[in-house]
Design the sequence.
């Protein structure tokens, strides 16, 4: 287990599709542990492997009391037409925050640690975080979908009584 350095937002790995996981061995478990350590250290709500320089479709989403969701080769198979706008940030783009419209319900498939296929449905904040992380695995940053950038001053005003929200990076 180790905290890994976050790579720069301009790094090519954050701007192209990364590779499918094909080896479901101890190195995958180690990667998941490193991602978890790095996500907590950076105070993030999600993290994707390319953010620590790893060329694989692996990501995590912190679902708080529901635990940590492991995404391995995730593919979103359905996006609800209903969307919601909320503020996002990104561990790879410190100090950039902005409004992004995301589907409020998604269906996705992927694999578990052993490579077995899994399917799930996610809603609201978890669906948003999954969409943000899956985008990372396909080389897309939230700033490409941002409707409006929010200044740090504006953000602090909005969440002056809710400090945690300011660090909602993923
Ligand atoms: Zn991000």
Sequence:
């Amino acid at each position: 287990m180790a905290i890994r350095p976050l790579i720069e937002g301009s790094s090519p790995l954050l701007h192209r599709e990364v590779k499918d996981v094909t080896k479901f061995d101890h190195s995958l478990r180690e990667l998941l542990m490193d991602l978890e350590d790095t996500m907590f250290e950076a105070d993030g709500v999600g993290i994707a492997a390319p953010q620590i320089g790893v060329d694989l479709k692996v990501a995590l989403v912190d679902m708080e009391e529901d635990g940590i969701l492991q995404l391995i080769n995730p593919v979103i198979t359905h996006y609800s037409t209903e969307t919601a706008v909320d503020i996002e940030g990104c561990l790879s783009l410190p100090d950039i925050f902005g409004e992004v419209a995301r589907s409020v319900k998604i269906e996705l498939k992927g694999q578990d640690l052993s490579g077995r296929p899994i399917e799930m449905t996610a809603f609201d904040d978890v669906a948003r975080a999954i969409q943000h992380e899956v985008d990372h695995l396909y080389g897309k940053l939230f700033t490409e979908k941002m409707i409006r950038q929010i200044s740090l001053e504006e953000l602090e005003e909005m969440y002056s009584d809710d400090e945690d929200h300011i660090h909602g990076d993923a």
In short: Residues 12-166 form a domain with the Peptide Deformylase fold (CATH 3.90.45.10). The CA atoms of residues 137 and 165 lie 24 Å apart.
